[in-house]
Design brief:
The structure holds two protein chains of two kinds. Chain A is α/β, with parallel strands linked by helices. Chain A has helices at about 1-20, 45-55, 85-90, 95-110, 130-140, 155-165, 180-185; strands spanning about 35-40, 60, 75-80, 115-120, 145-150, 170. Chain A is globular, with a radius of gyration of 15 Å. Chain A starts with a helix and ends with a helix. Chain B is about 35% helix and about 15% strand. In chain B, a hairpin with a 5-residue loop joins strand 10 and strand 11 (about 400-405). Chain B has 20 helices and 21 strands. By secondary structure, chain B is an alpha+beta fold. Classes of the chains: A alpha/beta, B alpha+beta.
Chain lengths: ~190, ~575
């Protein structure tokens, strides 16, 4: 059963890459462990991502307020897109400070050649003005995007990924993320 | 001739008999789009509640011969199973009951009490971590009154046993149900708290992550707990094995509750407070339930204004009502507390004279700027939690019941093996150790709940209540204005866009508003000096009201349920 699930996950990823890249035989981006998982917007989805990484048996550090320094000893930056006023408030941030943090973090990741994997796990319910602005700004920095399908009903993710040549993998529900994550990190 | 006359009179008798048969009401189906106003229609009894399974449990109780109190408690138990994030055994509530035969209104107060070891500085001494200790640690848990309150009401005014009233809840918890988008979103929002306190393996998470809409939620431990209580009575909860588990869970998270606190808990029955608005009489909770008495304050101030001429949600209406809310908040901060321990001048606060005084301070041209009646906590709660039930039975008995575990999913703490969540109602105490609402031994924290029953010409007319924290009193008042002043139907009044404002330390906060209110109105309000904070078009920040309207001349009962949550009506 596990072998079949892995095969199906690989197929989903391959189809995602094939669908978003002009050349069908584009090599998938190389992602390595360990991961640094952080939030763009401070929604609870970042903790969900951490749990999913745990289920996929990936070595990961969760740091909701990660800065450039936290990239040390990590090989992939996982950016979980999802804004929450409650989350920002609890973190003592406003949207401006959150934008500053992510911009600086992405700049440092680029400098260190650390690839970015974007996740959007909240589906349709985790879309709105705040989150959409973050998607538009930060998704283009990704080497790959893994999203819950219902969050892409209006095609926003498809549009950005196509424009920027970013492989996009869509899954039906959050728990389905585990197998693609394993495949991406070759577990 | 005689035969012809006999046939004639027989025919007349037959026709008369047919015309006197009760007309069957054709019940329309609710629309797919829940935002479209829809009034449930009934002739004998109605239940409105925040989940279809719970409303159904109440209706079945009515149809099975239970009275309004039986049905309200059955619905309340069922909500613990079907809407566990908003109320349950680990929480508290208030019930306004109208007894039709005696023509009497009474209130059952089953609000939590602070443990005996509570102190005014118990949270402030935690410094920056105060919020966590008030909402997620064991210190956040007040002694739950829910079960004691339900039991009291059932024994005194109901006809069914605890086991009978909880039977449907047991079924729901055992069989499970597909979660709604509302449940899923709230589950996601509270994920970190649930992971930390309930644990990865808790039924409140689905394999360690939040539920997606449509996934089935089951709570077999809650079913077992309810069966145990049904068999052994409430002493099992307050003095027996469940009590030990509650205390163990609370103290494992640094709480201060003891077995003695639980054993000592008693609900209390009190007289309602009464107000009037344009020929209608309102019965609602006295303190520490403050939603009701602030509703009466707001209605009193608005009564002499030409709301109908100004129009629904026009700049003039929103400006005047927002300013009134700000003055009321000044009173709220200065006076609200547990009346068993502090003196609250309720009669003065809800008097028409005092309303005149507030009115004189409100200008049509600009905001007042300062609202000098006292301070308010810096941390303004954004809570959208709590839940409300309304019931009327065939004899005209009525229950308006609002109940809660405070924040959605409460503290997230689940006593081992019991399946229910513990409240974080200690967070409703003031952060100011000198406040009349500071935490002190055995005190009940102030509550924003405000279930009410309104009468017209001496007969029950409207039953209302809502969750929504500090927005409860303003949301319910707006529903009342929508019906009485703006002529809306019940559910139109409930679905109409809402707004809210308040003060902190005497200064006005922005008006939070549902952006279905036109842009031109918002611009006009800004010109008057208001700041505006738009929310979602149907934002549960403003509550999830449930209502029943009784029309005796038409022999009809309407039910209205808020699309901001999962509310429905069920009638027969």
């Amino acid at each position: 059963m596990n072998m079949w699930r892995t095969l199906i996950a690989n197929l989903i990823i391959f189809c995602g890459i094939a669908a978003s890249s002009p050349a069908v035989q584009t090599a998938p981006p190389a992602f390595e462990l360990p991961l640094l998982i952080t939030s763009a917007g401070q929604s609870a989805d970042v903790s969900i991502a951490s749990m999913l990484a745990k289920k996929a048996e990936l070595t990961a550090t969760l740091s909701k307020l990660a800065t450039g320094k936290d990239l040390e000893n990590h090989k992939t930056l996982v950016l979980v897109l999802g804004a929450s006023m409650k989350g920002l408030g609890s973190a003592g941030l406003d949207t401006d400070k959150e934008y500053e943090r992510i911009r600086a973090l992405l700049a440092e990741a680029k400098k260190k050649n650390i690839p970015v994997l974007c996740l959007h796990l909240g589906g349709e319910q985790r879309r709105g003005e705040l989150t959409d602005k973050m998607i538009e700004e930060f998704l283009p920095s990704a080497k790959m995007a893994l999203i819950v399908k219902s969050g892409n009903k209006d095609g926003l993710f498809t549009k950005i990924c196509k424009e920027k040549n970013i492989p996009l993998v869509e899954i039906e529900k959050t728990l389905d993320t585990v197998e693609p994550l394993k495949s991406i990190f070759k577990k | 001739m005689k035969r012809a006359a006999a046939i004639f009179f027989f025919t007349i008798a037959l026709l008369t008999a047919f015309s006197c048969r009760p007309q069957k009401i054709r019940m329309p189906e609710p629309p797919q789009d829940r935002h479209v106003p829809f009034n449930y229609v009934a002739t004998k009894g109605m239940v409105v509640a925040a989940h279809p399974l719970a409303a159904e449990a109440g209706l079945d109780m009515l149809k099975g011969g239970g009275n309004a109190v039986d049905a309200a408690i059955a619905t309340a138990f069922a909500l613990n199973a079907a809407e566990p994030f908003a109320s349950g055994l680990g929480g508290s509530g208030f019930m306004v009951i109208y007894l039709a035969k005696a023509k009497k209104v009474t209130v059952v107060n089953f609000r939590e009490k602070a443990p005996a070891a509570a102190r005014p500085t118990m949270f402030t001494e935690k410094g920056e971590k105060q919020a966590e200790w008030r909402q997620e640690r064991g210190t956040a848990v007040g002694v739950p009154g829910m079960l004691a309150g339900w039991n009291y009401a059932l024994k005194k005014y109901g006809t069914k046993s605890l086991a009978e009233a909880s039977a449907r809840a047991v079924e729901i918890a055992e069989k499970g149900f597909p979660v709604s988008a509302t449940f899923s979103q709230i589950n996601k929002d509270e994920y970190e708290k649930l992971l930390k306190n309930a644990g990865e393996d808790s039924c409140y998470l689905n394999s360690g992550i939040p539920y997606e809409p449509g996934e089935v939620f089951k709570n077999p431990e809650l079913a077992a707990t309810l069966r145990l209580i049904g068999a052994k009575g409430i002493d099992e909860f307050y003095k027996g094995e469940i009590a030990k588990k509650i205390v163990a869970a609370v103290r494992a998270k640094d709480g201060i509750m003891t077995l003695e606190d639980l054993a000592a808990y008693q609900p209390v029955e009190v007289e309602p407070i009464k107000g009037t608005y344009k020929g209608h009489t309102i019965y609602t909770l006295p303190p520490p339930g403050t939603g009701g008495f602030h509703i009466i304050q707001l209605l009193n101030v608005a009564e002499n204004w030409p709301l109908k001429d100004w129009g629904h949600n026009t700049p003039a209406t929103i400006h005047h009502l927002s300013e009134t809310m700000r003055f009321i908040f000044a009173d709220k901060d200065h006076y609200d507390g547990d009346p068993d321990y502090v003196s609250i001048p309720v009669a003065e606060l809800i008097s028409k004279d005092y309303a005149k005084e507030i009115r004189s301070k409100i200008s049509a041209e600009k905001t007042a700027g300062t609202y000098p009646y006292g301070r308010f906590d810096k941390v303004q709660d954004e809570k959208e939690n709590t839940t409300h039930i309304g019931v009327i039975d065939k004899d005209g008995n009525i229950v308006a019941l609002t109940q809660s575990i405070n924040d959605f999913f409460g503290t997230g703490i689940v006593p081992e093996g019991t399946g229910f969540l513990l409240n974080d109602h200690m967070a409703d105490f003031s952060t100011d150790p000198n406040s009349p609402n500071a935490p002190r031994p055995n005190r009940r924290p102030v509550s924003n709940m405000g279930p009410l029953i309104m009468f017209k010409d001496g007969k029950p007319f409207l039953v209302l209540g809502s969750p929504g924290g500090t927005r409860i009193f303003s949301s319910l008042s707006q529903i009342i204005f929508n019906i009485i002043d703006f002529g809306m139907s019940l559910d139109e009044a409930i679905e109409a866009p809402r707004f809210f404002s308040y003060t902190t330390e005497g200064k006005a906060r922005p008006i939070s508003i549902e952006p279905r209110i036109p842009e031109a109105v918002l611009k006009a309000l800004e010109k008057l000096g208001h700041k505006i904070t738009p929310k979602e078009p149907y934002d549960k920040y403003f509550g999830g009201a449930q209502g029943i309207m009784i029309l005796p001349d038409k022999k009809l009962i309407y039910g209205g349920a808020d699309s901001r949550r999962d509310g429905v009506g069920a009638g027969y």
